[in-house]
Amino acid sequence: MEVKSIFDGIEDFELEKMLKCFEARKMTFKKDRTIVTNIINVKTVGIILSGTANMIRYDYNGNRSIIEKLETNSVFGEVFSRLGSDISVIATSDCEVLFIEYEHIIKRCKKGCSYHSTLTNNVLKLLSSKIVELNQRLEILSKRTIRDKLLSYFELLANDNPRRTFNLPFTYTDLADYLSVDRSAMMREIKNLKEEGFIKTNGRHISLMSY
């Protein structure tokens, strides 16, 4: 069964006890504020309770890459990201984030709480999903041209909708950073794809046509 949240299968009354037991902390962040930096050295698991954020990395030349879009119930932390020490999480809207020390999740619960086992299983399943998502991203980035990267990403988003329509989860600027391409060149390619009948667009709403 697909796990959508780290808290799947945990009743509300158990969740309250668990958060106290784990000494969990809730924090709020305004849009564009940094939630964490140097994520590989952060010994907590973060859960987005509301809002959105981007996991980003800057290279030595200051170029930004977006590693992942984080939405409600998304999880981030060292265990979920072994992509380097220079990764940060930046709020893209006002956010509420729950932090749990990683140690509380992996250590054996002295009380033998049922929800602890459920939580651990959820973390493992979410980690498996992260690996699948990472492989999909690597597949997209391995494409040689901007056109192929765009079509590969659009195809991935369209797979969840029989009508093959979807809303981009990114702004076009962020999409360029996610695909690691120049924004101006990407926008030219999107224009070409529209003119050639591969896609239709209305703002960030895209319909993928047969090709």
Keywords:
211 residues; alpha+beta; Arc Repressor Mutant, subunit A; 4-stranded antiparallel β-sheet; 6 helices; elongated
Concise description?
This protein is of the alpha+beta class. The chain has helices at 12-21, 102-106, 114-141, 146-158, 172-179, 183-195; strands at residues 25-29, 34-36, 44-50, 53-58, 64-70, 75-77, 87-91, 95-101, 165-167, 199-202, 205-208.
| Strand ordering within the main sheet | 1-8-3-6
Which CATH architecture of the largest domain would you pick?
Sandwich
Structural class: alpha+beta
Low-pLDDT stretches are: none
Shape: elongated
Could you tell me the number of beta strands?
A: 11
Q: What about the largest sheet?
A: 4 strands, antiparallel
Strand content: 25-35%
Q: For the residues shown, what is the average pLDDT?
A: 85
CATH topological fold name of the largest domain: Jelly Rolls
Model description:
The protein is of the alpha+beta class. The chain contains 6 helices and 11 strands. It has a 4-stranded antiparallel β-sheet with strand order 1-8-3-6. Strands 2-7-4-5 form a 4-stranded antiparallel β-sheet. The chain folds into 2 domains: 12-141, Sandwich (Jelly Rolls); 146-208, Arc Repressor Mutant, subunit A. A hairpin with a 5-residue loop joins β4 (53-58) and β5. The chain has helices at 12-21, 102-106, 114-141, 146-158, 172-179, 183-195; strands at residues 25-29, 34-36, 44-50, 53-58, 64-70, 75-77, 87-91, 95-101, 165-167, 199-202, 205-208. The model has no long low-confidence stretch (mean pLDDT 85). It is 36% helix and 26% strand.
